[in-house]
Amino acid sequence: MTDSVWQGGGVDLDAYLARVGYRGDVAADLSTLRGLHAAHVDAIAFDNLDALFGRTVVPLDLDSVQDKIVRQGRGGWCLEQVVLAAAVLDRIGFTFTAFAGRTRIRTGNKVGPALHVALCVELDGERWLYDVSFGAHGLHEPIRLAEDARLDGDWSFDLVREPSGEHVLRFLGPEGPAELYGFTLDVRHPSDFEILNHFCLTHPRSPFNHRMVLQRTRPEVRHLLAGSTLAELRPGRAAAFRELDKDELLSAPEEIFGITLEPGDVQALRKFLDGP
After folding, report:
1. Is residue 252 over pLDDT 70?
2. How many angstroms separate the CA atoms of 118 and 155, rounded?
3. What's a Pfam family in this record (predicted)?
4. Which terminus in the chain has less CB density within 10 A, N or C?
């Protein structure tokens, strides 16, 4: 195939499908789009650990991302996961663009930096929001990208359009709608990801470089670890919270989030938890 800016020609599709446990047919159709989305979020956690290990670079080239997430069994933060997901969709033959959103959950901030990146897939005359990396409150499958679209089920979502023109993705929980992020469809390119990556890794106001943030989205339960606080979400219930001690924090990546850490990474995490 002719390679594109999304590097579909360089993705190891068989290895990715094995990593996420996808066993269905693969084609540029809605069934595949839904199946890949669900499999990805079930298997691959949001993981900011590299930012805590004193590493000054989190590489976004496809080879590095595949090595980390597919071969090593790690998670990744949204920029890494979008690089991987985009390459997979490109390899299969989907048509899509990337955009950036401003996170609102827990902050309500409509004018903060647009740090979250997701994909808009065009298929059979419709557009679909394909977002595999928002974490515990995020989508489990694509939602049609249209005003007043809904995705109903154990985990429900909708999209609303504000007078400003921004789309807002909302999580419809038992306590009412929670705004996740607002976005426009201004096209972003992989070169834009590098700037966002640098901010997330180095800026003093980055939400990702001073505390552990791990998230996993599974059908029956979702987990979010922010600092030492673990939130557990189940369909139709209010979130449950508990504080983890140091030993629990050290084991949480593998035991709760399914993240495989090398011995050196375990030691780096132990050093971070011990503090300066």
Report:
1. yes
2. 19
3. Acetyltransf_2
4. C
